[in-house]
Write a structure and sequence with these properties.
Length: about 525
């Protein structure tokens, strides 16, 4: 039996009944609550680095749910010493009633409870308070159960046995998340800014699916892994998630993992201490500390060197940062992670470029972003937006805005856009510089960057052909792509005159109309005569 801990020391029990001891924390100064760093801080002084002040701790309500009394009471004692308001439940039905009657900011729940499953308690805690921080505790940790809990809305996953220091750091980071969420709500009430008003352009179903998923995951702190081709809008999705999250009052910090050599990337991300290397004349916090309370966007994650991946995994799991050249812990951070890549992460796993444990930790919610060629109906909307945006930037609001003709819209839709949205954006900015005020923009006014000798869409489709589909299925898919592209271009070349287009295609007009309808192409896009 674990004895009641004296004030000045707190104990956290394990399944084996062995206590894990840690010194009593020293309450930090409220003035320095959010950004504390101290070079080479010993682990036993880690309480000084927790990003939460004493006043916040006293306002945070915590519920501990575990059917093992020793562990439950030890956790409660440790957290009460820290200054938190703690309540405990030893039975699942009791916990369900408590969650209905009271509101809690943080809930620790054992995954394997008797009578009431831990996943049911997780759902009940989030139903009672959607902004609650739910931490799942389990004595049977596995990748599968961790992912299941995180995808169900758990904030973090704490395997047994754990030390008092681990509990102290985890709850400190969770309490900081509560504090940041309160700041965000206060900021929105003060400024009247509604994050729900922030939107992204695009109506294609495949794109709206990605945005719907991004909106759902934004309200949680789950890690997100975004995949898509270069220029398809991965960083825009990351910004959307951050702006709609409870962390929007704090910064979104982006780092391009492919843009820096290994030594510089490590220093930029983790910071360094004075004298760590030639030119390190002072202590410097890294991007992880700059993003504290906010979001860190890891662009091109697969290009990150393996040693830095291992160091990053430690921060994701424990929130503990050690700067380059330091011999101790320098900061404890509370950061949400969003990663992105334009490569196939599964290939990177097989080749050994990407650590499997890091990948599954970041890929709690995967979001694929479609290429622009997969959503041609969005091209006119995006083109008109970029045209207006850059016209006001470069030409001013006084001069009349040019308009896209139907022929220009067809030309834009027919282009393969290998550079995706970024290419379209650059093309429209280039066009704005050359256009006359109030001009009717035609195809000849659009300075396409890439030629169309190679059909990127068909090439990509051919590479993705699965032999298991069978010859005729694969052939039919490729031919449908060809038909749509060919019909679009021949109508464009005929100036919208469908009879002329049919003659150029050497088919009768009825057949040409039927092909247009089969592939969802409208007859009147160019408003050209039929005869």
């Amino acid at each position: 039996m674990l004895s009641q801990p004296r004030r000045g020391r707190c104990a956290v029990g394990t399944r084996s009944g062995l206590p894990a001891m840690m010194p009593s924390p020293t309450p930090p100064s409220p003035a320095s609550a959010d950004r504390r760093t101290a070079s080479s801080t010993p682990v036993n002084d880690i309480s000084k680095l927790l990003p939460v002040d004493a006043a916040t701790k006293t306002s945070v309500r915590i519920l501990v749910i575990d059917d093992e009394r020793t562990l439950r009471e030890s956790c409660a004692s440790a957290l009460q010493v820290e200054g938190y308001r703690v309540q405990t439940c030893g039975r699942g039905d009791e916990a369900l009633e408590t969650l209905k009657r009271h509101t809690f900011d943080i809930v620790l729940v054992d995954l394997y409870m008797g009578h009431v499953p831990g996943m049911q308690l997780l759902a009940a805690a989030l139903a009672a308070n959607p902004e609650a921080i739910v931490i799942v505790i389990t004595g049977k940790p596995s990748v599968e159960t961790a992912l299941e809990a995180l995808r169900a809305g758990a904030w973090d996953y704490l395997p047994k046995p754990f030390t008092g220091t681990q509990l102290q750091v985890l709850i400190g980071r969770a309490a900081h998340t509560v504090q940041v969420a309160r700041e965000t709500r206060a900021q929105q009430e003060r400024t009247g800014v509604d994050p729900g008003g922030l939107s992204v352009l695009g109506n294609a179903p495949v794109f709206r699916d990605a945005i719907t998923l991004a909106r759902r995951v934004a309200t949680t702190d789950a890690s997100v892994f975004i995949t898509g081709e270069s220029g398809s809008g991965k960083e825009m999705i990351a910004q959307f998630i951050h702006q709609h999250s409870r962390r929007s009052s704090r910064p979104l910090v982006a780092v391009n993992c492919a843009a820096l050599p290994e030594t510089l990337l490590e220093s930029e991300m983790f910071g360094h201490v004075k004298g760590a290397f030639t030119g390190a004349i002072r202590d410097k916090p890294g991007l992880l500390e700059m993003a504290n309370g906010g979001t860190l966007f890891l662009d091109e994650l697969i290009e990150m060197p393996k040693p830095i991946q291992a160091k990053l995994l430690r921060v994701i799991q424990d929130g503990v940062v050690r700067r380059v050249g330091s011999e101790g812990t320098d900061a404890v951070v509370n950061v949400r992670f969003i990663a992105a890549t334009n490569r196939d992460p599964e290939d990177a796993l097989r080749s050994g470029m990407l650590r499997e444990d890091l990948y599954y930790r970041l890929r709690v919610v995967p979001i694929p972003v479609p290429a622009l060629r997969e959503r041609p109906d969005d091209v006119p909307v995006l083109a008109a937006h970029f045209l207006e945006h850059y016209w006001h930037r470069h030409r001013g609001a006084d001069e009349p805005l040019p308009t896209l003709s139907h022929a220009a819209i067809w030309a834009l839709r027919a282009h393969s856009w290998p550079g995706n949205v970024r290419e379209l954006q650059n093309v429209m900015e280039h066009a704005v510089v050359l256009l006359e005020p109030g001009a009717d923009v035609g195809p000849e006014d659009i300075p396409f960057v890439s030629d169309q000798k190679v059909d990127v869409e068909l090439a990509a489709e051919a590479e993705d052909v699965d032999a298991d589909d069978g010859y005729y299925a694969a052939r039919g898919r490729l031919l449908a792509k060809f038909d749509r592209r060919y019909l679009t271009r021949v109508v464009l070349r005929a100036g919208g005159n469908l009879s002329k287009a049919a003659r150029m295609a050497r088919v009768d007009r009825t057949t040409f109309y039927r092909l247009m309808e089969r592939h969802g192409l409208q007859r009147n896009l160019l408003n050209g005569p039929d005869e």
